[in-house]
Structure formats: structure tokens, C-alpha cells
Design goal:
Blueprint lengths: L1 H15 L1 H9 L5 H32 L5 H20 L6 H25 L11
Length: 130
């Protein structure tokens, strides 16, 4: 059962990292030659952010028994907004960037949550902490 949970977290992290990567590449104006390079760079940063912020947040939510889609979306938005503040600085953060990265974080959290629900053990409910 523990192996299944570890595989679920790893798969969820890998898939959730694609959301910010795809949104970043969709909004940028890159030529064909730079696309693959930036794909790897954006993916690495997204993966790093999810490992540092997303996985510990998910563990805390599960520990307190409040891990559900709504808490994941709220925490994802908060995490994305936090990344926007850290990157731009508190004085220079634009509201549009704050909202955009917040929504991106929510999308990434939703992918993480739904992947977790798909891989959860059969005897475990999606909203409980067992």
C-alpha cells in the first residue's frame, strides 16, 4: 500500500509539473529551436516548485484529514501567488501576474489531486486521511 502511495505522489508530481510548463510556453513567443530548451527549463522549475511547496502542503492536508479538491485548489492558488511574489518581489508584483500564477497553481493542484485520486488504494476514500 505504501508503494502505491509513493507511485501516486511521483506520478502526480510529474503530471502536475506539465501545467505551468504548458501555460508558460503557450504564452511565450519562442521559435522552434528554443521550444525544447525552454520546455526542459520550465519543466525543471515547475517540478522543483511542486516538490518544495506542493508535496509538503499535500502531506499536511492529508495529515489533518482535509485533503480534498477544494483545499487543493485554494492551496494551489495561494502557492502560485506566493511564487509570483517571490519572483517579482513584494513591491513589484503585478496583480495580473499574481492572479495568473495563482490560477496556474490551482490547475497544477487539480491535476495533482485527480492523479492522486486515480491511484489511491481501493479501500481508501478520497476525502479521508488513512
Amino acid at each position: 500500500m505504501l508503494i502505491r502511495k509513493i507511485i501516486a505522489v511521483i506520478t502526480a508530481t510529474v503530471l502536475a509539473s506539465f501545467v505551468p510548463t504548458c501555460l508558460s510556453l503557450a504564452t511565450s513567443d519562442l521559435g522552434e529551436g528554443l521550444f525544447l530548451s525552454f520546455l526542459l527549463i520550465f519543466y525543471m522549475w515547475s517540478f522543483f516548485a511542486i516538490c518544495i511547496i506542493g508535496i509538503p502542503s499535500f502531506i499536511v492536508l492529508r495529515r489533518f484529514g482535509i485533503a480534498n479538491i477544494w483545499s487543493a485548489l485554494i492551496l494551489g492558488f495561494t502557492s502560485g501567488a506566493l511564487i509570483s511574489v517571490v519572483v517579482a518581489g513584494v513591491k513589484y508584483v503585478a496583480i495580473l501576474n499574481l492572479i495568473l500564477l495563482g490560477v496556474t497553481g490551482s490547475g497544477s493542484a487539480a491535476v495533482f489531486w485527480f492523479t492522486w485520486v486515480m491511484f489511491k488504494p481501493a479501500n481508501e476514500k478520497a476525502l479521508t486521511n488513512r
